[in-house]
Amino acid sequence: MLIDNFSRIHNYLRISITDKCNLRCSYCISEDLPHGYFANQIKMSSEEIEKIASVFVKLGVNKIRITGGEPLVRKDAEKILRNLAKFPVELVITTNGVFVDEFINVFKEIGIKSVNVSLDTLKKDRFIEITRRDEFVRVKNNIDLLLENNFHVKVNAVLQRGINDDEIIDFIDWTKDTPVHVRFIEFMPFSGNDWQNHKVISHKQTLDEISKKFHFIELINEKNDTAKKYFVPNHKGTFAIISTMTQPFCSTCNRLRLTSDGKLYNCLFGKEETDLLTALRNNIDIEQLIINNVKNKYFMLGGNNENENWGIKNIDTRKKSMINIGG
């Protein structure tokens, strides 16, 4: 069992299988990455992912989320999914939704029941502005496809002031006749994403906006939930808010993150990393490295000052942008 110095049990591993993505969302990937950046990164092979995951399962991990970048752009994504499905864990995935139609039968076969889809707007033109790609129709159709096939679908929408905060009500309207679970995410600071505090739409501000039209009821949250959940009576779907910036949930965090190049982070905002891949390739037992990494976890926000302007270019000293660490 993986327990840190604050008695938090860590049983949830997020594995980024690639830092490549077919979209170019500004809050995730920096515009000034050098040409060839992704091609030069060392990646875990499918066999190495399976070996490292097996150690985490041995240490008590019972939930694994596959992330990216966009995980489904990796050529051997299906092989990786099938390998991880052999473990006694809840296997889930976060995707931008573009390639879901090509993988939905695989999801069914290996027992994936819950899929998170990133979608920050319900407007096609705005989707192109945010992602710099014209894939809105395919993503929306694939969300419908998942719902038609009885998947539990969470839609992740990163709110930014002046970008998409005028669509909050539209997202709630969507949940009326559609059993989709919308999750509004506070804009978080990462290297090169030009984060500034005034761009954050807070938990309170989101609820205040929703209350202008809807009466809603708070749902009971599980101990390790990052999202504060709500529903509007007579709506088929629900909504939630991930309040990382204004109401951090660090005290009950149970998550660990493995990057596509085999680095272990014990916090999304952490500056320290443990290189599991190099150790594995040198036949070093990685179990103790994992245990030590968890023991060194800060109580909150990776040891950062909660008021620090982390996302400003040339100031942020962390090595990883959102696309590198996998969200």
Please give a structural write-up.
With 327 residues, the chain is of the alpha/beta class. The chain has helices at residues 46-58, 77-84, 100-110, 124-131, 136-148, 168-177, 203-211, 276-281, 287-295, 322-325; strands at 12-16, 63-67, 90-95, 114-118, 152-159, 181-186, 217-218, 227-231, 238-242, 255-258, 263-265, 274-275. It has 10 helices and 12 strands. The longest helix has 13 residues, at 46-58. The protein is globular, with a radius of gyration of 19 Å. The chain has a single domain, classed as TIM Barrel (Alpha-Beta Barrel), CATH 3.20.20. Strands 7-8-9-6-5-4-3-2-1-10-11-12 form a 12-stranded mixed beta sheet.
DSSP strand content: 15-25%
How many DSSP-defined strands? Answer: 12
Distance between the termini: 24 Å
Q: Which topology does CATH recognise?
A: TIM Barrel
Q: Which residues form runs of ≥5 with pLDDT under 50?
A: 309-318
Query: How much helix is in the residues?
Result: 25-40%
Described by the principal axes of the CA atoms, the overall outline is globular
Largest sheet: 12 strands, mixed
Classify the secondary structure makeup into a structural class: alpha/beta
Indicate the radius of gyration in whole angstroms. 19 Å
Number of helices: 10
CATH class: Alpha Beta
Mean pLDDT: 90
Assembly context of the chains: single chain
| Topology order in helix (H) and strand (E) letters | EHEHEHEHHEHEHEEEEEEHHH
CATH homology superfamily name: Aldolase class I
User: How many domains make up the 3D coordinates?
Assistant: 1
| CATH structural architecture | Alpha-Beta Barrel
Q: Largest beta sheet: what is the strand line-up?
A: 7-8-9-6-5-4-3-2-1-10-11-12
